[in-house]
Each structure stands twice: as structure tokens, then as C-alpha cells.
Amino acid sequence: MKKVTLLLLLLVSYLGNSQVLEPVKWSTQVEKTSDKEYQLIAIATIDENWHLYSQNVPENGPIPTTFSFKSNANYLKKGNTKEDAGHTINDPIFGMEIKYFENKAVFKQRIMLKNKAAFTVDAIVEFMVCDDSRCLPPTEVDLVFDIK
Fold first, then answer.
1. Segment 25-68, tens digit of pLDDT
2. At residue 21, what are phi and psi to the nearest 5 degrees?
3. In which order are the strands placed within the sheet that holds 87-91?
4. Closest to 53 in 3D by CA, of 127, 148, 124
5. Selection from 28, 24, 31 nearest residue 100 by Cα
6. pLDDT reading at 140 higher than 90
7. pLDDT value at position 92?
8. What pairs with residue 126 in β-bridges?
9. Collapsing DSSP states into helix, strand and coil, what is residue 5?
């Protein structure tokens, strides 16, 4: 009985110390470009050896990075979300040319204000990351942009 208890205690201790992988950390910034226009900036800080995929990925490839901005009466989106240049490679795992980001990725969305009141823009980013041996399932993160 003591051996079973010790084994269970070791197993619980091991599982309690197991690490949850979060190789991408997101932050937001807001940049005023004119009296009525702002740039919403989402910055992905990517751990070493991990790749975050572009918004534009061929069909049957990894899950692309996708931004969903919650509509409200204070602003209008102008155009699509822009992204950095990144790296484009012929990926042997997916068997296609894919664009991805290492270390850091910056995404920008222009908006036009409908009024001058302070408000927040809520968004969700869905993304997938891989390293050289594995891919993590798609993840969603809430983003908040403060317009002042």
C-alpha cells in the first residue's frame, strides 16, 4: 500500500509540474495617424525555435493567423490587417511554400473613428505555432486596444 501511495504522490507531483506551452505572447499598441484615423498594432513575441504562421497560408497548410475585430458604433475598419514581411520557405512537412514569423511579428489594422469619445476595440487572434518537431493546436487570445 505504501508503494502505491508513493507512486501516486510522485505521479501527481510530476503532473503538477508539467509545463503548459505558450510560445507566443501578445501585446497591443495604438498609434494615432490623424485626427480620425488610428493604427491598431498587435505584437507577437515568439519563443526561440517556434514559428507563427502568416494570415495567408495555402489551403491544406497550417492554420493561418486570423484577427476578428468586434464591431462597435465608435469605429470603422479600413482595409485588411497588414503583417510584416516574415520568412517564406518551401516547408517539407506541409509540402508547400509557407510564410511564417520567428521571434517577433507585427500586425497592423487601420481604423477610422466615428466620434472622439474614448473606447476600446476588442479583438480575438487565432493562430498556430510549430517548432521543428511538433505543432500546437490552434489557440485564441483576446486582444484589447484602448483608443483615447
1. 999 999 999 999 999 999 999 999 999 999 999 999 999 999 99
2. -80, 125
3. 87-91, 96-101, 51-53, 129-130
4. 127
5. 24
6. yes
7. 79
8. 66, 140
9. helix
Helices (H), the chain: 2-16
Higher pLDDT, 95 or 143: 143
Which residue has cell 507566443? 24
CA dihedral 45, 141, 124, 94 (to 10 degrees): 70
DSSP string, 40-77: EEEEEEE-TT-EEEPS---TTSSPPPEEEEPP-TTEEE
Confidence of residue 93 (pLDDT cuts 50, 70, 90): confident
CA distances from 110 to 33, 35, 55 (A): 9, 13, 16
3-state secondary structure of 4: helix
Q: In whole angstroms, what is the distance from residue 122 CA to residue 115 CA? A: 17
C-alpha cell of residue 3: 508503494
Tell me the CA distances in angstroms from 8 to 11, 16, 17, 24, one per residue in order. 5, 12, 14, 33
Residue 27 to residues 31, 56, 60, 99, 105, Cα–Cα distance (Å): 14, 21, 29, 21, 11
In the chain, the percentage of residues whose pLDDT exceeds 70 is 87
Q: How many helices (H) and strands (E) does the chain have?
A: 1, 11
